[in-house]
Amino acid sequence: MNWITNYVRPRINSIFSRRETPENLWHKCDECGTMLFHRELRDNLNVCTNCGHHMGITPRDRFAALFDGGIFSEIDVPEPLADPLHFRDQKKYPDRMKAAQKSTGEKEAMLVAVGEIGRTPIVAAAQDFSFMGGSMGMYVGNAIIAAAEAAVKLNRPLILFSAAGGARMQEGILSLMQMPRSTVAIQMLKEAGLPYIVVLTHPTTGGVTASYAMLGDVQIAEPNALICFAGPRVIEQTIREKLPEGFQRAEYLLDHGMLDRVTPRTEMRDELITITRMLMGMPQAVKGDLPKPEAGAETEVEDAAAESVEVKKDAPADAAK
Amino acid sequence: MTQYLEFEKPLAEIEGKAEELRALARANEEMDVSEEAAALDDKAQELLQELYKSLTPWRKCQVARHPERPHCKDYIDALFDEYTPLAGDRNFADDHAVMGGLARFRGRPVMVIGHEKGNDTKSRIERNFGMARPEGYRKAIRLMDMADRFNLPIITLVDTPGAYPGKGAEERGQSEAIARSTEACLKVGVPMISIIIGEGGSGGAVAFATANTVAMLEHSVYSVISPEGCASILWKDAEKMREAAEALRLTAQDLERLGVVDKVIPEPMGGAHRDSTATLEAVGDMIEATLTDFENRDRDALIKGRRQKYLAIGSKGL
Ligand SMILES: [Zn+2]
Ligand SMILES: [Zn+2]
Question: What is the domain-level CATH number for residue B269?
Answer without folding.
Answer: 3.90.226.10
